[in-house]
Design goal:
This protein folds into four domains: 183 residues, Nucleotidyltransferase, domain 5; 150 residues, 2-Layer Sandwich (Nucleotidyltransferase, domain 5); 84 residues, Actin, Chain A, domain 4, CATH 3.90.640.10; 129 residues, no CATH class. It contains twelve helices and 30 strands. Strand 13 and strand 14 form a beta hairpin. The protein is globular, with a radius of gyration of 25 Å. Helix content is 25%, strand content 26%. The strands form eight sheets. Strands 1, 2, 3, 6, 10 and 11 form a six-stranded mixed β-sheet that branches. The protein starts with a strand and ends in a 9-residue tail after the last strand. By secondary structure, the protein is of the alpha+beta class. Helix 7 packs across helix 8.
Length: 596
């Protein structure tokens, strides 16, 4: 029997664990203090674990530099020290593993991190890095609550709403390897933020909104921006919340702001005649992260001094410094990331050059408000034009009053009526809201309470190659069959209507899947014979061999499809033989072999 509801925020920048006793009449949510290395031969317990992994040098391992107290020595040093040393040793520090986890352009089981580090550094895969961060959290729980193993608790792990099924499955794989229970729950981060708001306003929230209102959740994290739109509906005489739309996975967030600040500070160095080399530029990027957090916080300094170790012949052993003001940083971030734009604005999608360095697919347009305008326009509803829009913010950048008000002003400007968008919740606990909301969700799942309705955030399709005459040099046209309609609920299944499809068995075949965020009208069985390039996005294909006792003539078995969404939110596509009892299960999973 579970004793605790545990919420885990696996963040791009910080990881947080919150928990509540499931037997209490009301959830009393607490934060787990996570022991971590803060300096060589020193440890410290904090309410968050920075999502940084430092790979120690051989001499540091030999000297037991990081063997402190009860902390288990692993291949990486995670948390505070890793974040600190990242400015000096970016080549030995893994950052943004979560962003790499959803990057379909790389093999996420391959040892590729730290990205572009030298051959003298041991590398790890995004899945392995995620696993090691989660293992640290599992060990921290065991040290704090030894009589209640985490593997026996009700655990809710959060993921971006924009994570596709492949990224969710990879997260699940890493979590199970780290020691989470097999039945743990995946919850979207914006929903967790709303659950945190519901926790604080459990008796009054229905008085803050009305039927037909919409709730926009804007979550700007360390590496990503997540946009979610929810609707207030009435069921059985009670107001309920239902997720209406989810935005694209936007790789723009706090990390981009750090880089923008680094370019700004590099200009200050240039004015002093100091030109930074590539190593110093990366170091400066990491140094600016701490300065930004201080300058944006309400009780932070008005001025921060940023230093970078000298590397040139004239600077060996010394440092170069520059001062930045809070007003300068706020102005820089407002103009670059939150400019006021019209409701018809669309983000720039194309790169500036035909050649692009391989790496994370960061957004070409850093103006989050342009992405936001496009998201609201794509999900506009004339019937709801006069209904009020509410705003709920999440993410550490909104500790800044100036940035909170700038975003609200920008959204007001986009509204047809030009009205004032109410802000739900305050700046309190922005960095812990997702973990606390996830713990509250688990408590309500067991004890009852407000639940957000939603189902799948996208429609999903399988690619079916058409029959026809072969043409040299041209592949046969591909049709897309909808097998999961938008908002299909967890714990449900459906038989996909339509004619039989030939399934390749007994030999290797490539299975292609697609997703669409803005085709809510498609029902299971809908066939798309053509579509715009940005309308359907291909998720990671699978290449595998489906076994069969006796190979059929032609290598094809006629099948029909059955789609299932598990209680954990995992999509399973079952291919059922029409002329026999055999069936095959395809999951949105990637299982390349990996040594790391």
């Amino acid at each position: 029997m579970n004793k605790y509801s545990i919420g885990i925020d696996l963040g791009t920048t910080n990881c947080v664990v919150a928990y509540s006793d499931l037997e209490s009449e009301r959830p009393s949510i607490q934060l787990l203090e996570i022991e971590q290395i803060s300096a060589p031969n020193q440890s410290e317990a904090q309410a968050s674990l920075p999502s940084f992994l430092y790979i120690p040098q051989p001499q540091e391992v030999a000297n037991n530099t990081f063997a402190v107290g009860s902390l288990q020595t692993g291949p990486t040093v995670n948390g505070m020290y890793a974040r600190t040393i990242s400015a000096e040793r970016p080549d030995r520090t893994i950052v943004a593993a979560k962003s790499w986890l959803c990057h379909g352009g790389v093999d996420r089981h391959a040892p590729i991190l730290p990205w572009q580090s030298g051959d003298d550094v041991t590398k790890y895969s995004p899945v392995a890095a995620t696993r090691m961060l989660l293992q640290h959290l599992v060990q921290a729980w065991a040290a704090t609550v030894p009589d209640a193993p985490l593997s026996e608790q009700l655990v809710t792990l959060t993921v971006p709403a924009s994570f596709d099924m492949s990224a969710r499955e990879l997260t699940r794989e890493a979590a199970l390897a780290a020691g989470l229970p097999p039945e743990f729950i995946l919850l979207e981060e914006p929903q967790a933020a709303v659950y945190h708001w519901l926790e604080h306003n459990h008796e009054t929230w229905r008085g803050m909104v009305a039927e037909g209102d919409r709730l926009l959740v804007c979550d700007i994290g360390g590496g990503t921006t997540d946009l979610t739109l929810m609707g207030v509906q009435q069921e059985g005489g009670e107001l309920v919340l239902r997720r209406l739309a989810v935005g694209d996975h936007l790789l723009v967030g706090g990390d981009n702001m750090d880089l923008a600040l680094a370019h700004f500070v590099a200009g200050k160095f240039a004015e002093k005649g100091v030109k930074l080399n590539p190593w110093q530029s990366v170091s400066l990027w990491h140094s600016c992260r701490k300065a930004k957090e201080s300058l944006l916080s309400t009780d932070g300094k008005a001025t921060e001094t940023i230093s970078v170790l000298g590397r040139g012949s004239k600077l060996v052993g010394g440092t170069v410094t520059a001062e930045v003001q809070r007003a300068e940083v706020q102005s820089l971030l407002i103009e670059g990331f939150l400019p006021q734009v019209d409701a018809t604005a669309i983000p720039q999608r194309e790169p500036h050059s035909g050649f692009q360095e391989l790496g994370l697919p960061f957004e070409a347009d850093s103006a989050i408000t342009r992405h936001l305008a496009a998201f609201l326009a794509n999900n506009a509803n004339d019937d709801l034009a006069d209904n009020r829009l509410h705003l709920l913010l999440n993410g550490g950048v909104f500790r800044s009053v100036a940035l909170r008000e700038q975003l609200r002003t920008a959204i007001n400007h986009m509204q047809p009526s030009g009205g004032d968008v109410p802000l739900l919740g305050g700046p309190e606990d922005l960095e812990h809201a997702v973990a606390r909301g996830a713990a509250y969700y688990g408590w309500t799942k067991r004890n009852g309470g407000v639940r957000i309705r939603g189902g799948t955030a996208r429609s999903y399709y399988v690619g079916i190659e058409t029959a026809g005459l072969a043409v040299p040099g041209m592949p046969r046209p591909l049709h897309a069959l909808c097998v999961v309609p938008f908002a299909m609920e967890e714990g449900s299944q459906l038989d996909v209507p339509g004619r039989e499809v030939g399934l390749v068995v007994g030999r290797s075949a490539k299975f292609r899947f697609f997703a669409a965020a803005n085709r809510k009208q498609d029902q299971a069985g809908t066939i798309l014979r053509q579509w715009d390039e940005d309308e359907l996005v291909e998720t990671s294909p699978m290449e595998l061999t489906l076994d069969i006792d006796e190979a059929p003539e032609g290598g094809f078995v006629p099948v029909t499809f059955q789609s299932r969404i598990s209680e954990l939110g995992v999509f399973e596509l079952w291919c059922k033989s029409v002329r026999g009892n055999q069936e095959w299960k395809l999951e949105f999973s990637i299982r390349e072999s990996a040594s790391q």
